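ok so I'm stuck.
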Amino acid sequence: MYVNCYKLCSFRVNFFNNISFNFNRKYHSENVFGFKRKEKKVYKEAQDVIDAKCRESNFFRLVTAYRQHGHKCSKINPVTLATSHSLIPELEINRYGFKENDNVQFDGIISSGQKQGSIEDAIKFLNNVYCSYLGAEYLHLENEEEIEWMNQQIEKLPETNFSNAIKTNIATDLLKSQCFDQFLAKKFTSLKRYGGEGCESMMVFFNEVFKLSAGENIEQIVLATPHRGRLNLLTGLLNFPPSKLFSKLKGNPDFPSHYKSSGDVISHFIASTDLTYDDRSVHISLLYNPSHLEAVNPVSMGKTRAKQMMSKDGDYGNQSWSDKILNIQVHGDAAIIGQGINQECLSLTSVPHFEIGGSVHLVVNNQVGFTTPAERGRSSRYCTDLAKIISAPVIHVNGDYPEDVLKVTRLAFEYQRKFRKDIFVDINCYRQWGHNELDDPSFTNPVLYDIIRSRETIPDTYVKKLINESVLTEDNRREIVEAYEKYLNDELNAAENYNPPDIYFKKQWEGYSQPGDVITTWDTGIDTDMMTFIGTKSVRVPENFEIHPTLIKSHVRNRNRKISEGTNIDWATAETLAFGSLLFQGFNVRLSGQDVGRGTFSHRHAMLVDQKTNNMYIPLNNMHDNQSAFLEVANSILSEEAVLGYEYGMSVEDPRNLIIWEAQFGDFFNGAQIIFDTFVSSGETKWLWQSGLTVLLPHGYDGAGPEHSSCRLERFLQMTDSKENTVDGDDINMQICQPSTPAQYFHLLRRQMVRNFRKPLIVATPKILLRNASCVSDFVEMGPGTFFKPVLGDSMVVPSKVKKILLTSGKHFYSLLDKRGSLGVTDTAIIRVESFCPFPTLELREEISKYTNVKAIIWCQEEPQNMGAWMFIKPRFENLIGKQIKYCGRETLATPAVGIGKWHQRQVTEVITKPFLV
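replied:
not stuck anymore, here's the structure
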């Protein structure tokens, strides 16, 4: 229970300061408690003060109980199965020593507009505020200012009255939503539309929050919603042409024919539009959402942050949000509590480099998830209880009362604007039909749906109320419905000639396009002087900055030596050179993930920490005085799914940002599989959303056991649209590479930004190679005219003497190279495949054609035969190169690696020896 300790303590101090006790007199019957008999009047006055203060304290406790527990008996459920609402014990007045006719001071305790009154008056007021058609949860907030603000604002809500014009607007939005659903039901009888029937009040929320945003000079809203009522929102408020929807329903494509796209279902449609209210505009970006519920939420957060950065409104050294961009997330009741990504998203809200100044959350509470009733869909009282982990207030409201929805929408918006924190509006409503309109919900929820099917709809109920109030007439109602039906019919007729407009690659994406079906080569080298400058600056810190003593030698001195010599450039240094050169070209770089500043394997140290002050310093952000682009090092929470979704959202917003997510170990991507499946691998194909997101997955078999060995290349290769019989081009959906040298990695990172298109890049990065003396590059490999090579040939053998070719990738190359040297083999070439997808057909043909006496070609890998690249390599090599290829590696296994040290060592010996013996 929240208790205002300050008020209680102040009362005690003030009371005892004003009462004088005589403790020096002897105790006798005439001097009880230090008062003489003639001082009984003083004692009575003191007792009256005590009684008054106790009444005030008890009344405060009663009010606090209503603020804390009132929601438990509020009438927020429009289709409740309960027959009555009993008063809970915490709200019984005798618990606090009161009777109904007792008088108390209201002033300073409740915002009723009265200074004092009876307990009966107070109870009526408190019931009307906290136990009516809304229920408020906010006493879990940790900030007293927020609690006091909520007290005052909520207790003013019953006084709020709306003009007839506002009521008419509410009715119009509700009727249009209902009309739209009924129109689709008549014209497309077998359509799963996931309509808004039963939750039409959400339209009131949207219209009001858009209007308030425009009035507050918010420039853009990034909106994430699931299926429910999405089409109603699009066509009713977001200027989405119904003709486009009807054209899609008639089987026509989503995009102009010159784009490569497979399209998506209607419940994933989007809008990007300007809305004007009273001569003020706000831009709404409704994002594509996959069918995986709630997965779009972190994407919307990342997109919001990218927009905030582009707006140049905000100090990203101190405050990482902009007042001009607002994020709104819409949830389903079963999904918000059931999907773990929501907890991850909420955990990001106040983390540096992820905070966006708070989101407004709307829960469209159907009280049933698919077919599961609410009481079986969660263990908590409310589906919104997740909000309490970040001390976010929750306002529950009955969807049958659109005017109350409007009130709490204003409250939520004002809270977010004032405190820049998340807040939840939970509209309790219902689904008129099942999970979709073709589903029969009475199979599993018969009693609930008896109630739903016997009641009037929300729009009809509200319009009747307005007719009774003489705000509307039946003729007004008919005019609204007939006008909207005519509009929809006109749009249906126009669908026959609808052509999707070319609205893609505009604004910040101007100059970018979809790539062609050939693989292009891009010069990604830089001048030696530039490399020297960047490398030197990357380890320079302010004079009074104290670096960890170990790093002075292992990091600073070693890097300076390598840079001055221009040789033996290691992995981390090559990465730094790529980052620094991109910053000079005006591209921002963001590196996100768990412990990325230091690097999981303590190799990067892009962000240094002062050993005395704990202050952090990023040398690459201080290369020169006029630097405009920066490196953002975002050490993230222990999350994969939400963080990857966040980074994806940033990448699709602005192509000028190199967005990198690094997994702590390669297999950690498993926790983000939903994002890879529904966004990263398929976003452009479904929606024409290009993304240059770069994913670094530490990979390599070094005895770490089943989990931390493999980044599961086979899964990513399965997700590509590479074909076994066709030569790949740049138009592949995803790039998957395993560079074996620092220079190759350097070129990959730079290539991500210098091209005129964006593609996701999955990089299998090394672990033990990070400090391998053989895994180094020279400046000459990164200089002007150099570029990423999909295939690296073998310069250490004489082609005419080669009888066997070993194809491999990554770390395994160095093991095979060492073994070939120890065995003294001279007739075997080792060729590295640096890019799996796009598959380097032409480069492999050219390289293999050098060897005319080859008897056998073998694919060598560390992974088991049912994993790694083998299943991808074999059909493409044989179909496109035209030669047979054998396999040499670990045998098929259920886990990526064994967990017994001796077995691992035996396998290591076998996989690097066998290729030279077969």
